[in-house]
Write a structure and sequence with these properties.
Layout: H1 9-15, H2 37-57, H3 66-77, H4 84-90, H5 98-108, H6 123-159, E1 164-169, E2 172-178, H7 179-202, H8 216-222, H9 224-238, H10 252-278, E3 286-287, H11 304-328, H12 338-365, E4 368-369, H13 371-378, H14 387-398, H15 400-411, H16 416-428, H17 435-438, H18 448-453
Antiparallel strand pairs: 1-2, 3-4
């Protein structure tokens, strides 16, 4: 049996210091630093320090001299922990890394701050809060890259605002569009996803509820009024939103952030999928600024960034599904396993968003259009791309069946312009002067230019009339000072005998 020292126990041990360097995840390689184990550990320590700061903010140190109060807070802020691997292994026994971390921090803390480290808190308070700290910071980086991508897409769309191209539906040529309109649609998807992600980021709350989510330990330490103030002070110290209540098993902060990240990756995935498709050799309308090479085929310029972005977009929804599954199974006052599912899953979603957004910003910044290929593809069907327009414009003149016959004949190789010309001449003896315009794809791009410049919400508002609604009541006539109310309303004049009228319905006068 072949033996390879690469897989020896010694080699495995030597490599165990960094399990995932991105070797099998090129979309994230070089972009995962904001969610690394080291950053998570720093956030855990920051959450513990923030709890001490929150205690000081609500007056827990009143019996201590003012100078010593500040020293306690500063000592808490100076706490450090850096042995990720040791804490990870030590955390196996208790099911999370907070338990050994607290022991480490209390061991290293001075006598004044030691009693306040983790006081009254539970592991979930610290771990949830730390993940929210990491998520908020990483999401801020993603938002900046989405802004860059949206700005580059806006420039690209305006540059190619009027460049007519073939729109495709279900992989086939449909009607004319423009390169700019397609890019504007990408931009709108990215912009909307960016707004939703920003909202989710700003709503990320701190977690502080004690062992069972009732804050009982904090009430015991501080009394009910100060205990009620503590979560808000804790949130302010961490830079997170103040929670309206402990969310130990109400996992909306995780699922809402996960959904927003997936929407952002969806939007980037659409861009990448279109670029990959339109850069195919036989289409060739788009090309990345820096194409990827091939190990065996030197003629290839692979759309490498698009491929990587698509890989992230394809992975993301399944991660969000795992978050929702965990949220649905968050039982009791702390989930047994479902909580643990969230940690690596949310981090992987953030990692994908960090990598994909960075690649997307670079992709659209360097995106190039081959105008000759665009024009060539537009003419591939020899004018049939305006068939919809012909049906609308010529149907009332020639009849829909005759127009269908013309399109069919053109599809078999006939000259579309000549077919239309002959049909119109036979129908009414005159051919309109605008026939060339009728067959011109550039004259049938609808509101494509306006969609690049803005959106349809800026159009004037038109009130839609409901034909089934009752007519509005007529306003009363002018005031009559001589009407004392004794006059009966005038009856409508009889219009003749109706043999079908019901004489007892009260609507007809009786003879």
């Amino acid at each position: 049996m072949h033996s390879d020292s690469t897989f020896s126990p010694e080699a495995r041990d030597a490599a165990s210091g960094e399990f995932d360097g991105g070797l099998l995840s090129p979309v994230t390689a070089g972009h995962e630093a904001p969610v690394s184990d080291e950053i998570v550990l720093r956030a855990l320590v920051a959450a513990e320090a923030a709890l001490v700061e929150a205690y000081a903010a609500v007056g827990a140190f009143e019996q201590i001299a003012p100078g010593e109060r500040a020293a306690i807070v500063q000592q808490a802020r100076d706490l450090r922990a850096d042995d990720v691997r040791a804490l990870a292994l030590a955390g196996v026994a208790g099911g999370n890394p907070v338990i050994p971390l607290v022991k480490r921090l209390r061991r290293d803390a001075g006598p004044a701050v030691r009693p306040w480290v983790h006081r009254g808190a539970t592991s979930q308070d610290i771990l949830d809060t730390a993940l929210m700290i990491v998520a908020k910071s990483a999401t801020g980086t993603v938002l900046g890259r989405l802004d860059d991508a949206a700005a580059a897409l806006d420039r690209f769309a305006r540059e190619h605002r009027d460049e007519v191209a073939a729109a495709r539906t279900l992989t086939q040529h449909a009607v004319p569009t423009t390169v700019g309109a397609r890019a504007a649609n990408w931009r709108r998807g990215v912009t909307r996803a960016r707004r939703r992600l920003a909202d989710a980021r700003d709503a990320l709350p701190a977690q502080l509820g004690g062992a069972g989510g009732t804050l009982a330990s904090f009430v015991e330490i501080l009394g009910p009024d100060r205990a009620a103030q503590l979560p808000g002070a804790f949130a302010e110290a961490t830079g997170l939103a103040a929670p309206d209540a402990p969310w130990h098993t109400a996992r909306w902060p995780v699922t809402e952030l996960g959904d927003a990240l997936v929407q952002a990756l969806d939007a980037l995935g659409v861009v990448a999928a279109d670029v990959a498709t339109l850069s195919r050799t036989e289409i060739g309308e788009l090309a990345e600024g820096t194409g990827g090479g091939s190990s065996a085929m030197p003629q290839k310029q692979n759309p490498a960034r698009s491929v990587l972005i698509r890989s992230a977009a394809l992975r993301a929804p399944h991660l969000a599904a795992a978050l929702h599954t965990a949220a649905a199974l968050a039982v009791d006052e702390r989930p047994d396993g479902a909580w643990h599912v969230e940690w690596p899953t949310l981090r992987e979603l953030l990692r994908l968003a960090l990598g994909a957004s960075a690649h997307a910003a670079d992709l659209v910044e360097g995106l190039r259009v081959d105008t000759e290929a665009v024009a060539r593809n537009l003419e591939a069907t020899r004018g049939l791309i305006v068939s919809e327009r012909l049906s609308i414009a010529l149907g009332p003149i020639l009849g829909p069946e005759r127009v269908s016959d013309i399109v069919s004949a053109a599809g078999l190789g006939g000259d579309l312009g000549l077919l239309v010309y002959n049909a119109l001449q036979a129908a009414n003896g005159a051919v309109p002067a605008g026939l060339d315009d009728l067959l011109d794809p550039a004259a049938y791009t609808g509101l494509a230019a306006r969609l690049v410049d803005g959106d349809l919400s800026r159009a004037p508002h038109v009130e839609v009339i409901d034909p089934t609604a009752p007519p509005p009541e007529e306003p009363p006539g002018p005031f009559d000072p001589f009407d004392d109310g004794s006059r009966l309303p005038e009856r409508p004049a009889r219009r003749g005998f109706d043999p079908f009228a019901d004489p007892f319905d009260g609507k007809e006068e009786r003879p």
